[in-house]
């Protein structure tokens, strides 16, 4: 009955829009960059469902509860490396039931004690005026905008009905619980609603200040706007690009922004791949499954230091000769000194052996086998994730077994070169192998080595970047070449755009991507500033005119 009342409330408030979002995706068209710059890309829907992480953060912020309801939900799907693509964030039957159960439980928790209730009810007493004050105040946080008069009336009617449909508690507490339960099932809560009715100008519709407040908050904090941001929206102080940038830079100085940067890099670098790694204990006694989250922490702490502490440029991600280690990770680097499991310390590494992300143990170990390294896996990651270059999948009948180490085949490099030399393989593997061989100085757990199976390591090679052939002798020179390449900068910008705008990039983004890629080449342009600049593009502050109601 309670779920039925939630649906009735939705009907009474004249909810609009479908629960399932469209499946069409914008993509490159047949227009040149200059023509496409005048257009505004869109996720393909005006209702963008909150990701599970955003849902958890939002309910914690507006209810004041330490909860993670989405732990019981089915995982969000991943598209192009990220789990926040708007086209994948639909609500099927199972998730609808999960939302209902979560809303019922959260509504009950809100009134479980006087202290819990006080976090959402701004007034004392049980009068109708207090109920209306609660509805207006909580509704503003839940819907991320002020309630309309019809909405306030409908929720007050629902509030008064609670005493007859809920079993436990006093009449006022029942009203609070049922109102919270109903609001948490509304599209206005579960989705970022972008239905701005501003008049189109130059083919685009400006989002309202409240819609921009939500975009800012979910991009930079991965949660709902706080009261300060909502107050700025109320005062229309997010109306210009300068207003938005000013607020974005302030928000990037908040600790919540660190978690967003962590989340982006966690997904871009596929840090989940670090989980469930196993290694031959006879060969690698310092490596256990428990080390996976420690290697993830190493990478995330390194990135956070580069982005927030150093305010460093893009190239530093691939060239910094330092990292962050605890006791277990330090052992993989064969570092001397005293370390603990709980604490991570910044350590300088040998610059002839280590250079940024690509020579950290996590990346190297997660792209290797139980006993040996894998130039192919490392090369494929470079092409697809770091450079965004096209690469097909291997044929279904491809033989994945490398030839044995015998005769003239003495090293991993020789195994791979021999196995992939036939003409039908060489087309792709000429690129894959060249990049993977750069990391031959690192074994299956990322430890530095100079010998492989008793033979000197050969980590030399060449790659084509920016139309030029780049020779390198090892991963250090390779990482430096990557750090200054237009391909890597463009790929990083492209991935940030996909993550920030929750959609695939299309022809409409050509000029923005070109500008971002160019800025990332500057030594005085911090990665942190790139994130702020994402809020300045037309695609962030507008939606296409054809999407107007």
What secondary-structure arrangement, pairings included, does this model have?
Layout: H1 2-12, H2 33-36, E1 47-49, H3 52-63, H4 93-110, H5 114-118, H6 128-143, H7 149-165, H8 171-183, H9 187-190, E2 191-193, E3 204-206, H10 209-220, H11 227-234, H12 241-252, H13 255-268, H14 292-309, H15 316-319, E4 322-325, H16 327-332, E5 345-348, H17 361-366, H18 375-386, H19 412-419, H20 423-437, E6 451-452, E7 455-456, E8 461-465, E9 468-472, H21 475-483, H22 486-501, H23 510-519, H24 527-533, H25 538-541, E10 542-544
What can you tell me about this protein's structure?
With about 550 residues, this protein is mainly alpha-helical. It folds into two domains: about 1-20 and about 30-195, no CATH class; about 200-549, no CATH class. About 50% of the residues lie in helices and about 5% in strands. The strands form five sheets. A two-stranded antiparallel ribbon has the order 1-2.
* Distinct helical segment count: 25
Mean pLDDT: 90
Give the spatial strand order of the biggest sheet. Answer: 1-2
Calculate Rg over CA atoms.
27 Å
Strand count, sense and closure of the main sheet? 2 strands, antiparallel
Ranges where pLDDT stays below 50 over 5 or more residues in a row are 3-33
Q: Give the CA-based shape.
A: elongated
The end-to-end distance, rounded to whole angstroms, is 34 Å
- In percent, how helical is the residue content? 40-55%
**Overall SS class:** mainly alpha
Described by its quaternary structure, the protein is single chain
Query: How many individual domains?
Result: 2
Strand content: 5-15%
